[in-house]
Design brief:
CATH topology: Rossmann fold
Number of strands: 6
Strand order of the largest sheet: 1-3-2-4-5-6
Strand content: 15-25%
Radius of gyration: 18 Å
Number of domains: 1
CATH architecture: 3-Layer(aba) Sandwich
Largest sheet: 6 strands, mixed
CATH class: Alpha Beta
Order of helices and strands: HEEHEHEHHEHEH
CATH superfamily: SGNH hydrolase
Helix content: 40-55%
Length: 240
């Protein structure tokens, strides 16, 4: 059965196009967080971590990488691991450009890859079929390039809660994001190395960045905590 948001697109298209133009004109352009994009810290079991993806992975909305996902996650993991980490992320990245960028990288070994992708696919022209196909392509590429033990995809955020969006765009993008998350869950189920990270929690619009579109420091802290907990649990289960 066709999804309601897709059925409504021909009706909503003129309004959505106007709202998109307004949003592009008025939304603040926040920079990627400055700071180191790789490092080594901690002690314990060696762990090589790669973070890839879009503007959220790049720390847009944080004042520095130490306050963004990479900093929060690496600091949390350093309590248990001898961590080597690397961040490869860029504002505006969708899954297609992420694949193209990763395809150019040198082959090496990472134990865990954390992926943040999907928002720009939801706001762009990607449809469900293309999203499904590109997810499979990205997973295959990451396996081939980096031979990870674990690939963790962060769920596409609940875009119906983005303060920067007005109705009906907020409803439309929220519904499309939810559909893309269902597809993500189905694709991940077919690969034992993959899983989905859900960072939903007691977060509000006040926790977002000043543009009402990107994570703020509170969300990055929560995201890093949730991701580190998942990774620690995976390695605890493997050691059992």
């Amino acid at each position: 059965m066709p999804r309601l948001y897709r059925m409504m697109l021909p009706i909503l298209a003129p309004v959505l196009l106007w709202q998109a133009k307004q949003l592009k004109r008025t939304i603040p352009r926040l920079p990627e967080a400055p700071g180191k994009r790789n490092g080594a810290l901690g002690q314990g079991r060696p762990l090589n971590l790669l973070i890839i993806g879009d503007s959220a992975a790049a720390g847009v909305g944080a004042t520095s990488q130490s306050q963004a996902l990479s900093g929060r996650l690496s600091q949390a993991l350093s309590e248990q691991f001898e961590l080597n980490w690397c961040l490869m992320a860029k504002s505006g990245a969708d899954i297609r450009s992420c694949i193209a960028f990763q395809d150019k990288q040198s082959a090496q070994s990472y134990d865990v890859i954390l992926v943040s992708i999907g928002v720009n696919d939801v706001t762009g022209s990607s449809n469900a079929l293309a999203w499904h196909s590109k997810l499979e392509q990205l997973i295959a590429l990451l396996h081939d390039k980096y031979t990870p033990n674990h690939i963790i995809f962060t769920k596409v955020p609940p875009m119906q809660e983005f303060a920067a969006l007005k109705q009906p765009m907020r409803w439309y993008l929220g519904a499309k994001a939810a559909h893309f998350n269902e597809i993500l869950a189905n694709v991940v189920q077919s690969d034992a190395c993959c899983r989905v990270l859900d960072i939903d929690g007691e977060l509000s619009a006040e926790d977002m960045a000043s543009d009402g579109f990107h994570p703020g420091p509170v969300i990055y802290q929560h995201w890093g905590y949730q991701a580190s907990g998942t990774i620690k649990k995976l390695y605890k289960e493997n050691a059992a």
